[in-house]
């Protein structure tokens, strides 16, 4: 639900005033992680920290913001609710969220938190202020983001698309988002996030705190396909109660520096967690996926597949941690990570990290790093397919496996098309 | 159609082909036989343009053009087809998409318009029947999960779809039971015309009971040491290779 006037003086402020004030106090003495930090060993943040950025608030005071056309960025074949952030600011006039079922509150995080204390209380519960320089800044500038609350037993009638548009040419923005999502018992929803950058490359820091109740089901697609030269550092933390399902698909094939942290913890048994990721990195880009599934209780399942293609001077990092705690007996956890390197300078750091403290579990992982198969290539060429076309066919087949797993079936065809375009641009 | 003159090729320091001469005309079926390691598969790979071989001497002229200067895909579009001894599995690329791309790439090379979708599907159905390939295999990834026989049938199916002037069958009979062998040979026989030619590379005479050759050549130690008609194949089956090798050494 949307109202053009946002009153920020209610529950939200009450609840969060101290946290924001505390974070603001810390701003002056922030230290960004360096490569000496194990978690950031392969991802230097120079590109990000050397940028002179302006906060969204400042930018809005200083510059006019003409209304953009959102139509080119909508997804073909998808009937969805639409929420738009323009240069970091929620934009009610571009958003379309008209026919929500009863029991669903969705909109700007401020509004939703004001209406629903469960959402206000989620802020800062899964992501603590002092975890890193990023969490401090994200807390200090916690104005923007997406809020969703779904009551017990309610299914969202259609997916919600969150569109983050950046077309500001005057300054490099630093845009922080805090998404707060709570699905009560047996509630179902699906969300698609898409970032589209056409102006001066911003620094984007989206953080999500997601809480899934008993038997809740959330499909979550993240499209980092049009980031241009942006830096994006995201953190999503999910808690799952008993019998809930969380599916995450992350497609990252743009951006100068992209770091995703995706972390799920199981609070009750019979949870299912699925992660599918695809990363394409070329020309000095870094795409870094750090994932965690924390099997803290027995009888849960996780299945993770990440694939990537790195060409030119691109670099990719995959660190997939699966924690199986002492009590988490009968855990089923699978992970696979495959990367193709297309050039002599292309790099991938692949680190499957399984820490298993229970003894009655089924866990497996596999990581491969390779090149386009010479036999396959010759077979295609011997049938008359030119070398570039044959390579493209093989790369598309390799990466297409992830598109085939995307839970939004109606989007697969158009995702294939844009993947194919992207593959032909690989430098 | 195809003229090979004094062809020598090696892998790293090892010379494998030591001067091959071969003339194939339209409408002919040639068989190349020989013991293991004689260079049979190298010859087919070199004609098709596989990387990893160094050509030290000789020429491979196809319809007046030197093939050794062309990329594998160009040779294919010129009309040379290699049926692989070990067809490659390509996960994620459907048979249909693969063949459509191949046909259209060849047509593009020859300056022709892409094939119509309906005409293509009709052709798929017709040609699949020739080799008895199950229609459901078309939607599957190329050769993935195919049995040995299905893979070889798929090679002949591709041959039928691409309709080349010269088809090289590299040990197409290996690993086939008698039914699959018959199906493959029937397919080949249906595709024979006055305009095309076949080069059948085989270890055993068995396949030549079904695909009757006009010429039989014995390849040994990188050279063709004897040529004859189909009776040579029968003689080899009966007496083995040793006598031909002995005679060639004496000569």
Helix-strand layout with pairing:
The complex is a heterodimer of chains A (427) and B (251).
Chain A: H1 11-26, H2 46-49, E1 53-55, H3 56-62, E2 81-86, E3 89-90, E4 104-108, H4 109-115, H5 117-122, H6 133-140, E5 146-150, E6 160-166, E7 172-183, E8 188-197, E9 203-212, E10 217-226, E11 231-240, E12 245-252, E13 257-266, E14 272-281, E15 286-295, E16 301-310, E17 315-324, E18 332-341, E19 347-356, E20 362-370, H7 374-381, H8 387-405, H9 412-425
Parallel strand pairs in A: 1-7, 2-6, 5-7, 6-8, 7-9, 8-10, 9-11, 10-12, 11-13, 12-14, 13-15, 14-16, 15-17, 16-18, 17-19, 18-20
Antiparallel strand pairs in A: 2-3, 4-5
Helix pairs in contact in A: 1-6, 7-8, 8-9
Chain B: E1 2-11, E2 14-24, E3 29-33, H1 40-48, E4 54-62, E5 65-66, H2 72-78, E6 80-83, E7 90-94, H3 95-109, H4 117-131, E8 141-142, H5 148-162, E9 166-170, H6 178-191, E10 197-202, E11 215-220, E12 223-228, H7 230-239, H8 242-250
Parallel strand pairs in B: 3-10, 3-11, 6-9, 9-10
Antiparallel strand pairs in B: 1-2, 1-4, 4-5, 7-8, 11-12
Helix pairs in contact in B: 2-3, 4-5, 5-6
